[in-house]
Design a protein that fits this description.
Elements: H1 2-23, E1 39-40, E2 58-59, E3 65-66, H2 70-73, E4 84-86, H3 99-111, E5 117-122, H4 129-149, E6 157-163, H5 174-180, E7 182-186
Length: about 190
């Protein structure tokens, strides 16, 4: 009788431990739209990165959407407000109109050597999943190269590619595609 009560208590405790363990893993931490993980520098395990995503988007000075948690809570003052740059179809070349944006981020990172940024590469939905993961990574790495030339240590930057998995806008027209071909600075 006493042993039975002990085993019941042990079974309940093990159940709670199992539930607690399951609740801390198995999904993205940023509330992504579809729960798909990323691939690249830190997200190769499919879990993505923390504090990122397309939620909380606003409009930037270019009339396009940008994302980032810091814009919402105001706790990261000094970080350039424009945190998204866009790319042409099937390209990883940085457009000249976004060079001032990258320079502003480079200056911020140089002035804050303990700050790190995750560069999230995205693509539109055209192409295979594997191709788009590669293209998103190439876009983010293009930003890393630009920032490195500006003097930002590579240790302050991390690359994650989400490919087509986390679209900023859903839709099958060119306007939607253009908003999904991007790199997001996530501080």
């Amino acid at each position: 009788m006493r042993a039975s009560s002990y085993f019941k208590s042990l079974a309940v405790a093990a159940s709670f431990a199992l539930i607690a363990g399951c609740s801390s893993t198995g999904g993205t931490q940023d509330g992504s739209l579809d729960g798909a993980g990323g691939m690249g520098g830190g997200g190769a395990d499919g879990s993505g990165v923390s504090g990122s995503g397309v939620s909380g988007q606003g409009m930037n000075g270019y009339g396009q959407q940008d994302a980032g948690r810091g814009q919402q809570d105001g706790s990261q003052s000094g970080i350039p407000q424009v945190r998204t740059i866009y790319f042409d179809y099937d390209r990883d070349t940085i457009r000249s109109e976004f060079e001032p944006v990258l320079n502003a981020h480079a200056q911020y990172l140089q002035g804050h050597p303990n700050t790190k940024v995750v560069l999230q590469g995205h693509t539109d939905e055209r192409g295979t999943r594997e191709y788009n993961l590669g293209l998103g990574e190439r876009r983010a790495n293009a930003v890393v190269r630009f920032m490195t030339v500006q003097g930002v240590p590579s240790s302050q930057m991390e690359v994650v590619s989400y490919g087509e998995e986390r679209p900023a806008v859903r839709g099958g027209n060119e306007e939607s595609y253009a908003q999904n071909r991007r790199v997001v600075f996530d501080y």
